[in-house]
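Predict the assembly for these four chains.
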Amino acid sequence: MTSSEAGFRDLSAPTPGGAKRSGAAGVAKRSVAAGAAKRSGAGGPVVAPALGAAARLRVAIPSVADRVAAELRLQLAEGLLLPGVRLTESTISEELGVSRNTVREAFAELAAERLVVRHPNRGVFVASLGPGDIHDVYTVRRFIEVSAIRGGGSPERVAAVRAAVEEGRAAAAADDEEALGNANQHFHGAIVALAGSRRLNTIMAQVLAEMRLFFHKATVDAHFYRNYLDDNEEICQALEAGDLERAGELLLAYLDRSEEKQSAVHGD
Amino acid sequence: MTSSEAGFRDLSAPTPGGAKRSGAAGVAKRSVAAGAAKRSGAGGPVVAPALGAAARLRVAIPSVADRVAAELRLQLAEGLLLPGVRLTESTISEELGVSRNTVREAFAELAAERLVVRHPNRGVFVASLGPGDIHDVYTVRRFIEVSAIRGGGSPERVAAVRAAVEEGRAAAAADDEEALGNANQHFHGAIVALAGSRRLNTIMAQVLAEMRLFFHKATVDAHFYRNYLDDNEEICQALEAGDLERAGELLLAYLDRSEEKQSAVHGD
DNA sequence: AATCGAAGAATTGTTGAACAATCCGTAGAT
DNA sequence: ATCTACGGATTGTTCAACAATTCTTCGATT
């Protein structure tokens, strides 16, 4: 399974910038087309001319490398790319229609997020978490989430936690396991968001992204998250009641139980 | 001040791999030197042939991009590259003797660590932290450090905290402000290390690296850290005595005071 | 037969060059 | 004095080449 059978979206088409020469040997000196001959190449896909306006509107326009990283992040989250799988530069480069160098830049991003691991001269592999990593991830979560909930938060932020609980309830009613998992992550994300710290939010987002990497194996148990629904409800109620001490303890117990379960599912 | 007057070390010489063609057009087909003719190129700098052995010894051999990132990280920490300064790709590329693409990869690493900020199509700049960022950084520290110290740690790890305290004392005795600052960072690093979590350690390392970015301005006050020596001692004693609750509270008070001071030094 | 090692293929690491797109400062027109 | 067109500088991205390393395969040897 070389990861190439996944349905990659083509990222090269809507790219602003990008030479996209047809392919012939590059003997063409730069003498021609030095002046105002813009977009003169053989009938490449012409992009909408309104792109300049977008730039003026200060819309964040992610670079191709960023979009490649985003795409890979998505496939990682969807479980399309299983842990341990090798990501070949040339394959992804072709599949996504971008250059190998750009893929390389995207890899640097993902490696910084620990989603992939670089083995020098051997390639990058989808990160696979061992038992030690699972404990480590839960340690981070205990530190951050419990501290966050014990600090409380503004009413709107508490409401966001509540919303995540309801989101999970709805997903359970609809029997949508996927949505249930997402709701659970939103719940914990909302707890961290109580602190209103940009850095803590991104740290938490990264940790959750890491967890998605090995959660796919765990979801075989159809009602894996279902047990947590009541826990979330209870925690949320304590939070809303202002009993932060109790909310913290409930959350801590929850995390301990969750870690235990995860450790059991994976070879301990 | 374009950051180019800093004394860059040349990273290109000891590089394993790297074509380093003299410059002429690359019409030389790859037909020649296909077999055993290794290191046949025109008299480039010949590296020690023992490099293969190093690889066999599984010594981590960082890529050039990593070394560029490390070099920049160092200059950032030393305060050679002030916040807000623009880092031009071509300049660094020449200065360090590596290709622009490699510099680019290093930038991706540093951007992921928040040490530099990318402005699309405008370049990368040394990150500069505003008042909000200072508060944010201290929020992260409060969460992680206080949780860590309240969890206690093995005797060896407590000893490491003690060692950092003594290190600071020695630096103060020697009137070495630089060493004093480092000792202080070691102290807080050691506190987080109590938890024994790889991820928390790297998170803390990154946060401290961010702080170094704006600490240089603060160090004008000659005995800025000196006030903290007694705090550290007190915290360490509580930790050693097993009074984790008190240690946590002392640390929390310390962080609050520290944030206040930093906020005062910087605008607002 | 099992093992060792060497030729070969595949892939990564790094470079250099090319060019499109964008940004910025400046000079010219209104 | 303000706006606009022009040019230079720099980033974003691609391509092609090649060195070094790892992986594979296939013989040759004990």
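Chain B touches chain A at residues 60-61, 63, 65, 101, 104-105, 108-109, 112-113, 120, 136-137, 139-140, 142-144, 146-148, 195, 197-200, 203, 207 (CB under 8 Å). The mean pLDDT of chain B is 80.
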